[in-house]
């Protein structure tokens, strides 16, 4: 396998994990118990847009975009991990 095919496979694995988190977030009920009313809905929309951006970067034929998609996916998953554990 070439380097870029390995990167692409890793990207699709990271994207599917992140997509699972996005799908889970959309299935959760929005709670209006805090002082910022629509913040939860806006975060969900941003998560979905980042999901589309990462998919778009991974579908291109340029190597640097695939590497960028992998870095962004790793940062997004690390952020979710940090928010979930702290």
Report what the structure shows.
By secondary structure, the chain is mostly helical. The protein has one domain (3-27, 39-85). 80% of the residues lie in helices and 0% in strands. It has helices at 3-27, 39-59, 63-85. The longest helix is centred in the N-terminal third of the chain and has 25 residues, at 3-27. 15% of the residues are buried. The mean pLDDT is 88.
Ordered list of secondary-structure elements with their pairings:
Blueprint: H1 3-27, H2 39-59, H3 63-85
Helix pairs in contact: 1-2, 1-3, 2-3
Characteristics of this structure?
mainly alpha; 86 residues
- What's the helix count? 3
Number of strands: 0
What share of the residues does DSSP label as strand, in percent? under 5%
Q: What's the end-to-end separation, in Å? A: 39 Å
Radius of gyration: 15 Å
- Mean pLDDT metric: 88
**Structural category:** mainly alpha
């Amino acid at each position: 396998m070439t380097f870029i095919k390995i990167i692409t496979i890793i990207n699709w694995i990271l994207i599917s994990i992140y997509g699972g988190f996005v799908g889970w977030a959309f299935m959760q009920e929005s709670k209006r118990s805090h002082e910022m009313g629509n913040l939860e809905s806006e975060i969900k929309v941003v998560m979905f847009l980042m999901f589309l951006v990462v998919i778009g970067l991974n579908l291109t034929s340029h190597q640097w975009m695939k590497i960028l998609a992998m870095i962004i996916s790793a940062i997004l998953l690390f952020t979710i991990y940090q928010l979930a554990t702290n």
